[in-house]
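Q: Can someone sanity-check these two? First one:
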Amino acid sequence: MKSVVPVILCGGSGSRLWPMSRQLLPKQFLPLVTERSLLQDTALRLRGLKECGAAVVVANDEHRFLAAEQLREVGAAPRALLLEPVGRNTAPAIAAAALLVAENEPDAILLVLPSDHLIADRAAFHREARRAFALAAKGYLVTFGIAPAQPATGYGYIEAGKPIRGVRGAFAIKRFVEKPSRARAKAFLARGGFLWNSGMFAFGARAFLEELTRLHPAIAAGARRALEGAARDLDFLRLAKKPFAACPAAPVDTAVMERTRLGAVVRSRMQWSDVGSWTALWDAGRKDRAQNVARGDVWLHDARRCYVRADGRHVSVLGAENLVVVETDDAVLVAARERAQEVKEIVARLDRLRRTEHVSHSRVYRPWGYYESVDAGPRFQVKRLMVKPGQALSLQRHRKRAEHWVVVSGRARVTRGLDTLYLDPDQSTYIPIGTRHRLENPGKIPLFIVEVQSGSYLGEDDIERFEDRYHRG
């Protein structure tokens, strides 16, 4: 068997899972089903699949530290962490990963996995993956087709063609069908031979690149130039922005899989979901006798077939049916469960109104830790900062605001102008407007401080950095 390199695609915004999923913390980084994030579950799912080596992870530049930290937490060191400067859909991302692997292992098989899927049975996933590897070793470009459990309208479908000899449950691909109406989906299930398109693939790196070059040469050429111009940055490999941005934005399905003569599908009965909406989480969740799914501090009375999630406060639901209720610290969603796919329209409206509830939570993660908003008003803002042991904010200054720091717990090393001082709990310092400053945690426990900002402008873009260990601009 040829070597297998997993490629984990870590882009995407997950707008249908607002208000939990936000631009700065999309669904793949959230613990929506288990106590781990979807990305972490994806990485751990590969354990025991002995054919696989370390993964190539393709992430958005903005999420690079989140991806690296979450993988570190579960001991899943990647072969490479490839950074997309802009999102161009899956075909350019997979092409860049294939080119990177092919530099040293042109005959390797790629196992392409989205980072935000739910697969309940790891053993079943391993069985289906090994069947896909066997097909890929014969030169096929393989996708995983899920036997449909219901006439779902949120998935694309694949019609299976003639069986492929030598691999059980393998078929040539007859055609792809975009997300159908419910009536058409019911007809597919009645006719048989149709599978949900999972968005997971297995193919040889060289075979995929040859087909991509033949079918969509602009993507292949752009990804090649982006990799040739890539630059190392800490533990990341940054693709060159200009050639990658010039790649046509296209999913791998339409760029290659729908047009190739080498397409094959493995029929799978594993429990799978792309976690594409709150309804999908209701489908996947553990239900009570009234078919409710509840997470967090939730009380349900005379409620039926509801999905209710409380992220920070208590939520009670009385006498309701078929609702989605999701509470976060700064937003609450209440929706009819059958209309959960339309949540993205709320996100679009928030964006048009230039609001921020779709961009970030009150807690915003940074490579050094996080900050969260506590209070704000005219000319002032209060934040709570956590700095991880051994980490530091950039050496910076602000043109329009002053800051007052109070240490709550831990020990802080503060650079203030030409002075360096150490602060213990209940001690504080003042940073005047225009003063260079830096906050560091020299200790072995997290540092918590309260920061009070005051001034004419308090936006995050009022930061002029002079030194930064994370190479931010």
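And here is the second, same format, sequence then tokens:
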Amino acid sequence: MKITQESTGELTATIKIEISPADYTEKVNKILKDYQRKANIPGFRPGKVPFGMVKKMYGSSVFADELNKLLSESLNNYIEDNKIEILGQPLANDQLTPAFDGDEDKDLEFYFDLGLMPEFSLEFSDKTAVDYFKIKIDETMVDNYVDDIRRRNGKMINPEVSAAGDTLKGEFLELDADGNIPEGAHSHQSVYITLNINFRS
């Protein structure tokens, strides 16, 4: 395996990963041989299914899984080992990456675009002015906060009539002209706090 990095802009770069069959063949074959031991296919005794048949049935999916793991691990390790500060996640470059023709016995190339973290520094001194806010908390704020905690963590009950300040949870359903719920009706669950209105269940 060979991994190289090329700068494509002030804060962008492209990583090229070159993979040969030697990088994945052993792992793929090991998994397929495990499939071979466990395969239960009519006409063959357990563990006696020809390897070629198992590879034909499962080879492509196993190869794809192992290739994805190999690319992910290699790319992440390269970024960590080289201490590359990136923004977001690497993006696969489908324009540069050659189309895969299904041939597992050939060298493969994959390209990934990176957004690089800009370098900056902040200088502070004794003369640096910083606003400091002193928040005053009155009894009303405390009471409202306690009430909010009680409301969010209180015990759920099902009274026939709600009172002002109760937190109600309900489901809104679409009804037809006769008041019935039609097939495929739209529904929406919501939570709201009653004010001075009483609701009956």
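A (reply): Looked at the second one. The longest helix spans residues 51-81. Residues 89 and 108 are 22 Å apart (CA to CA).
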